[in-house]
Structures are given as C-alpha cells and as structure tokens.
Amino acid sequence: MSSSACTPRATSAGVRPSSSLASPGTTRAAGLSSFLQEKYGMNLNGLMLFSTALDFSTFRFMNGHDLAHVLFLPTYAATAWYHKRLDKRLQAKPLRAVLDGSGGLCRGDYNAALFLGDKLPATRRETITTKLAQYTGLSREYIASTNLRIQIHRFCKELCRSEHRTVGRLDSRFKGIDRDAAGENFEFDPAHTNLDGAYAACINHYLRHDLKFESDSPTP
C-alpha cells in the first residue's frame, strides 16, 4: 500500500510543504522532492518515510531469489497465530514468543537450508519442512510441494483454505471469500475491501478541510 500527502507550512520564506510517504511510496520520495523543486520551485522542509519499502528485493518473490521467503516467515507465523492455525503448543504461546521462534528459524536453519538448494540432505529437509509447518499453520505436504519456498499470495490462499476463506496481504487479520476455493492464489485482497473506504474518506477530508482543495472530480 502506498500513500503520500503534502502539508503546507508557513516559514520565513513563505509556504513550504513537507511530504509524508508510506510503503512503496517511500521509493518515490527522492523523485517527488526533485520534481517539485525543478518544475515548481518548491523546496520541501523534509520527507517522512513510514513503513519504508526502499529495497524491493525484500518482498519480491522470484526464482533464484530466496530473501523474501526468509523474511516473510515471521509474518506468516503471526498471521497463523492470529487465526489460530498453529499447533496447540505454539498457539498457547504469546505472539512475541512465536515471532522470536520464527525469527530464529529464519536467521538459522531455514536460511541455511535454502542456501544449500538441492544439496540439502533429505533428513535436514524433513526437519525444516516440519518446522515450517509448525510456524506457518500449513501442512507438511503443501510445504514440501513448494520446495520450502512459500510465496505470499499462495499463503494467503492456503492458510484457511479448509474454511473456504482467504486472508489479507495488506492486513492479514481480514478474511475474504473467493469464488474458486481451489485456486492457487487469492482473487482479491480482503484487506483492501475493508480499508479502502476509510482511506478514501480520510484523504478526502484532509484535502478539502485541511488543505482547502476543491475539485469537481469524484476522486482526489
């Protein structure tokens, strides 16, 4: 999810805005600053980056690139814990303990296993498969079929498949219902369905009441 807003501030040199950006919007921060300065002569007081996504390699799932698979594991664990999909032993633990355990697996055995690729011994593969199943709430059979690499959109579809439900990507607390329960990936992000209205109301109120921006366009 990306968003941005410019807030005007009065200074001795006149009105100079600051800008706040979130998620992939943070990668546009430098470009936005340069564009405003060069085209309109507007100098920003500063840039505020929220939930930064400056390195796309940390969340892009690509063949031959395992970083995202490793880094997403704690998110999978937290999501499975929230939806009560973990085994009884882990489910009974506080979320912080589940995150610490999955984080340790990321930094150690899981990362090393992916690095070995096809040279990973069968016994270690079985061990990692079991641990991933424990922390993700997915079946050992499913994890084995992914070659230990669980892609985010597949996870969102698979976690609650037995309930014919999906979970959100932007906010995995939300659940959705797909027309095709047998699909590989979810058909839409249920988080967007629940949050888009609130975001639209917020930005419209901000533009019209705080920035005094008026437009006949139905969208800002």
Task: Report on the architecture of this protein.
With about 220 residues, the chain is an alpha+beta fold. The chain folds into two domains: about 5-55, no CATH class; about 60-190, no CATH class. Helices cover about 45% and strands about 10% of the residues. The strands form two sheets. It has a three-stranded mixed β-sheet with strand order 1-2-3, with no helix packed on it. A hairpin with a 7-residue loop joins strand 4 and strand 5 (about 175). The longest helix is centred in the middle third of the chain and has 22 residues, at about 95-115. The chain starts with a strand and ends in a 10-residue tail after the last helix. About 20% of the residues are buried.
Q: What is the H/E string?
A: EEHEHHHHHHHEEH
Strand line-up across the major sheet:
1-2-3
The mean pLDDT is 86
Low-confidence stretches: 1-20
Question: Strand fraction band?
Answer: 5-15%
Task: Sketch the major β-sheet.
Answer: 3 strands, mixed
Total number of domains = 2
Radius of gyration: 22 Å
The rounded distance between the terminal residues' Cα atoms is: 17 Å
Overall shape: globular
Overall strand count: 5
Short précis:
The chain is an alpha+beta fold. Helices cover 46% and strands 12% of the residues. It has two domains: 3-54, no CATH class; 60-192, no CATH class.
